[in-house]
Prior knowledge:
The complex is a heterodimer.
Chain A: E1 6-10, E2 17-18, E3 28-35, E4 42-48, E5 52-54, E6 57-58, E7 63-70, E8 72-74, E9 77-79, E10 83-87, E11 96-98, E12 102-108, E13 116-117, E14 132-135, H1 136-139, E15 155-162, E16 169-175, E17 179-181, E18 184-186, E19 191-198, E20 200-202, E21 206-208, E22 212-216, E23 225-227, E24 231-237, E25 244-246, H2 253-267, H3 269-277, E26 303-305, E27 311-313
Antiparallel strand pairs in A: 1-22, 2-3, 3-4, 4-12, 5-11, 6-13, 7-10, 7-12, 8-9, 8-11, 10-14, 15-16, 16-24, 17-23, 18-25, 19-22, 19-24, 20-21, 20-23, 26-27
Helix pairs in contact in A: 2-3
Chain B: H1 18-44, H2 46-60, E1 65-68, E2 71-73
Antiparallel strand pairs in B: 1-2
Bound molecules: fe (ii) ion.
Amino acid sequence: MARPHIEPFVDRDVGFKQMTLPGFRKGIHFKMLSIDKDNGSCTMTVQYEPGFKQPPGFSYSELELFVQEGDLKIGNKVYGKGTYVFAPSGTALPAMSSQKGALCLAFYNFGPPSFEESDANHDKADDTQQLKIISSYDGLDWQVPTLFPQTAPGCLLKILHIDPKTFGMTFLYCMTPGFWQDNISYHDVAEEAYHIWGTSWMMQFGDLPTGGYFYRPAYINHGCFASDLGILAIGRTDGDLHNYFHHDPFSTPEENHERAAAKLARMKPALYQWILTHEHNHLPHDFEFPDDTYNTDDYDSGIHMHADGTSHSHKHSGSHSHLNTPKVSRKKNR
Amino acid sequence: MTLGSTTIRGNLRPKMTKDEAAWVKQELAEQIDRYKKIVQEMEALTPQREKWVADFLHRIQTRGYHVHAGNRRVIPKNEIRPRDGRPLQVVY
Ligand SMILES: [Fe+2]
């Protein structure tokens, strides 16, 4: 993970810049929210000017687009605020235009922003069946999260996209007026969010208003939480979201990481034992996805990235050896 | 995001063009400045944050700590881990 911890950042505090990358049409302005130093993947607030026009085309990177305000015509249909677009890499979108302008969020997930004019998909386009356009405000209902443990009552979700392999997800969430949650949370995955409307408060970072954003690498404490008037926000994770709750405001990401591993050993001892007893420096083979070749060395493990691109790892608080035949003891319930 | 179902094909042009590399370099330089500003702002919030933390520790020992959804548990004093001089770092 090569994006730094950006939290909190409020995009209303900075001006728009013109998009100058080749391929893009005139009339696109952006504010950078966070960018990855290795592959240029990024999240941006994007303003399309009134009268903006773009021919059919694709992005080389997987792209997600969310309309906050204004109108965006995609193909023959005009979409309004709350529209969410998911376009796998190389999947061509129809011509786009905006009559009155549109304020959006753009997520280029695996590479820098790009636009290649084309009315056909790229030869190697990813699973084009995943292309979707959702009217999230009037087309989806708010759900109580089904995670365990769950956030406090008054935090509701609309799931926009779930990655079928990693369970990384993109979702709208809201906090009802008077929301409060008295615990501290962290996750195994990076989390980013943007406030479409409203202000919430976290014990570490204070108030996050409309236009507020964070990109938070794994295992960083956040919470407790509160919101007087409620919020509407869009959030994303890059993997399965588990809420690790606790009440130690001073714990470090390294301690949190180790605690998560201890929980895995406790909650999934068979899996934990398997990982210990097999070679674990590569992705285990998955008969469902036999061609997967990525390896987890790319992922942050005890190493976090600073904005200047430096990183450092931390020693474990306890020593461990990789045994060939570890024993994971388990209390028998009966 | 780095890992994903599309890790191999999630970017069909993994080697950046010259223009892209220059654009990314400029954006990264600006990101460093934003990060430094955030660190300063969060540093300035420290006295206020210390009060928020004290309030939180008081509330979970009186009103309760959210274990799951609306379920709360009052935390006994002996379950509050001593601070032992640990700093309160929030940005990493
Ligand atoms: Fe979270």
